[in-house]
């Protein structure tokens, strides 16, 4: 492990990422960067690493255990960027992962060492500067500080160049700024409105205030003053509204869009209709970086500049006010997405929440760390049910819901919903005992608070528990009760049609295939009318199962592939792996036992990231058992095992592509035999 340390603005992130790019070819499993600056809760460091590595794990296992298993056999470089505010958490994660994975190399950036056993610390020095009194250096021999300033100044002005006429001024300015990259970039950005001489003179004036106090200071303190002075001076050059917006933007985590800024930061002092021009001014002054274009434009504050803005916001006494407004905006966004999830925009909603993941997490953290706000945290975490369950965030959803439920125990409708949502997550993870307890508590809370919708949802999910534990009579009764309650309440949404699809699974397992098909065709019709896709995938699974049972193999294959295709759109591993299990059976029965064995191996690997394989259900497991028996009979046990192991080595994208027929499979046995002859 190597930790790159240094003062703010010295370029730790840039150096680490460039090093990772240069070294990537030497690591069989690549180099991966994990940005941590937007993370406020150290407990989520493991989740951030998992997202960066695209490790999708929806089990109830601790995230560090999941990561340790994933990394144990890999040779990989992992960059943990900006660790100082989560130092203890990052150190703990590093210790665990380095012990578990001998082939793991960690490169961290932090303002101080993490204190991990075996850690080597690389203290990053600022860029080399030039002696202003020396003769001008040619382009090749110029010190890096001068080169960087020239590049950024040229970008800002469209034509700046260092020559004999301005060499001394540039060299003096770079030395004055201690060669700190961020300070140089901020200063260069001011050349849009100042001449080089004006820039130098104004910086000299600012530094004169520090002269008396710097003689005995360490280099790091001096450099900190150089950056602080440059940032402070850049702040002074901003208009009043730009300074105000800079401070208010510090409440965002990661990047953000203009609409969010208008709602969070706009008020009588900074009207929303002035936000666009004020953002442009901050971009022009190099305070904000702009990412994307057109409707996808987003903005980001560098960490050092965010810290400055946050400090300024605190001095204005408005930190809590604007963190609260940030929370309110993202709560309204989540609630809007929840309402619109039952419709044609599911894919866009999923993408939007992925973009806003850091800000949603920051809003939840605000709720659960601010006195009196836990009730809103329950409300927000519960409203994200579709995201946690449908989009591959079971473990993170359960983390937030567990925290919120532990903090706020007063009987409320928000608590009733949070309980059944958490219970639903537990079912998907195969944790049926916990699910039953949560759902029973949720039903009791709903009855106590007079919330019939929450009560119906709890009954519905208790039906799911009965379904996956093979108690089909109880499941059918509970699903019918829940559907009757939904109908009496006039409910028609994702939960309602999912209950119908799950009821269809139940009656299919009971042997009433015509009724199961009738239920699922009705669900599919509603989905097509509304443009709903997530529940449609589950209905397609049941229809594929029914088609196979009725001997319509081609129809079953088409339906199962559609199921898998939709599920991968939302990262819903449960539905995807159920579809893959069916396709493995179809391959085995269709003379492709090698593909069947490999698909079963891939499915086994995916189940490890979800929870209990096939929920421990004999009925969900039946297609797997039948496919395995057919494949073993055709291949023999040893060959089956070999192809099964090959399947376990596929990552999620490869496994899905294989199941979808998007990557070559193995030859059918007869054709392979002909080729050998």
Automatic annotation (TrEMBL):
Superkingdom of this protein's organism: Bacteria
Domain Cyclic nucleotide-binding: residue ranges: 423-478
Catalytic activity, EC: 2.7.11.1
Xref: Pfam families: HTH_77
GO MF, one example: protein serine/threonine kinase activity
Alphabetically ordered keywords of this record: Kinase, Serine/threonine-protein kinase, Transferase
Protein name: Non-specific serine/threonine protein kinase
């Amino acid at each position: 492990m190597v930790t790159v340390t240094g003062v703010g603005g010295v370029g730790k992130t840039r150096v680490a990422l460039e090093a990772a790019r240069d070294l990537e070819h030497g690591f069989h499993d690549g180099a991966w960067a994990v940005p941590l600056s937007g993370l406020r809760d150290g407990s989520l460091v493991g989740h951030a690493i998992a997202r960066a590595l695209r490790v999708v794990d929806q089990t109830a296992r601790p995230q560090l255990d999941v990561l340790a298993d994933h990394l144990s056999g890999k040779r990989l470089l992992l960059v943990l960027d900006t660790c100082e505010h989560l130092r203890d958490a990052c150190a703990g994660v590093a210790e665990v992962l380095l012990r578990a994975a001998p082939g793991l190399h960690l490169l961290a950036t932090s303002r101080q060492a993490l204190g991990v056993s075996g850690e080597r610390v690389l203290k990053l020095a600022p860029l080399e500067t030039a002696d202003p009194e020396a003769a001008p250096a040619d382009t090749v021999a110029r010190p890096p500080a001068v080169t960087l300033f020239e590049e950024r100044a040229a970008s800002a002005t469209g034509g700046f160049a260092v020559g004999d006429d301005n060499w001394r001024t540039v060299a003096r300015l770079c030395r004055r700024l201690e060669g700190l990259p961020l300070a140089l970039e901020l200063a260069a950005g001011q050349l849009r409105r100042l001449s080089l001489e004006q820039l130098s003179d104004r910086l000299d004036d600012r530094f004169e205030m520090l002269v008396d106090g710097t003689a005995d200071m360490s280099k790091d303190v001096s450099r900190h003053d150089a950056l602080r002075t440059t940032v402070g001076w850049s702040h002074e050059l901003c208009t009043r509204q730009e300074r105000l917006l800079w401070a208010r933007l510090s409440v965002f985590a990661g990047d953000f869009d203009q609409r969010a800024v208008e709602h969070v930061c706009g008020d009588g002092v900074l009207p929303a209709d002035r936000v666009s021009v004020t953002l442009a001014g901050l971009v022009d002054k190099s305070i904000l970086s702009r990412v994307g274009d057109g409707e996808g434009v987003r903005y980001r504050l560098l960490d050092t500049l965010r810290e400055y803005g946050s400090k300024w916001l605190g001095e204005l006494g408005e930190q809590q006010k604007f963190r609260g407004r940030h929370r309110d905006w993202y709560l309204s966004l989540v609630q809007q997405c929840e309402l619109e999830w039952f419709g044609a925009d599911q894919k866009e909603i999923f993408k939007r929440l992925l973009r806003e993941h850091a800000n949603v997490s920051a809003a939840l953290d605000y709720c659960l760390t601010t006195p009196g706000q836990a009730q809103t945290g329950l409300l927000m975490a519960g409203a994200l049910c579709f995201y946690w369950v449908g989009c591959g965030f079971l473990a993170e959803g359960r983390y937030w819901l567990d925290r919120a439920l532990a903090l706020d125990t007063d009987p409320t409708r928000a608590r009733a919903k949070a309980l059944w949502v958490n219970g639903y997550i537990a079912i998907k993870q195969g944790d049926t005992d916990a699910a039953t307890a949560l759902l029973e508590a949720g039903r009791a809370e709903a009855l106590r608070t007079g919330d019939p919708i929450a009560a119906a949802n709890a009954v519905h999910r208790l039906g799911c528990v009965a379904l996956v534990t093979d108690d089909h009579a109880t499941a059918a009764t509970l699903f019918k009760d829940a559907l009757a309650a939904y109908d009496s309440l006039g409910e028609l949404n994702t939960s309602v049609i999912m209950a119908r699809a799950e009821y269809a699974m139940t009656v299919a397992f009971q042997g009433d295939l015509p009724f199961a098909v009738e239920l699922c065709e009705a669900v599919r019709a509603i989905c097509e009318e509304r443009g709903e896709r997530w529940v449609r995938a589950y209905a397609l699974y049941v229809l594929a199962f029914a088609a196979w049972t009725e001997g319509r193999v081609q129809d079953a294959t088409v339906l199962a592939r559609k199921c898998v295709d939709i599920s991968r759109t939302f990262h819903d591993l449960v539905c995807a792996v159920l579809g893959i299990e069916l396709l493995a059976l179809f391959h085995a029965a269709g003379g492709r036992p090698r593909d069947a064995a490999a698909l079963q191996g891939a499915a086994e690997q995916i189940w490890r990231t979800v929870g209990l394989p096939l929920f421990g259900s004999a009925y969900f497991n039946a297609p797997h058992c039948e496919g395995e028996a057919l494949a073993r009979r055709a291949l023999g046990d040893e060959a089956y095992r070999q192809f099964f192991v090959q399947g376990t080595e596929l990552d999620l994208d490869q496994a899905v592509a294989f199941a979808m027929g998007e990557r070559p499979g193995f030859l059918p046995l007869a054709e392979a035999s002909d080729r050998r002859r």
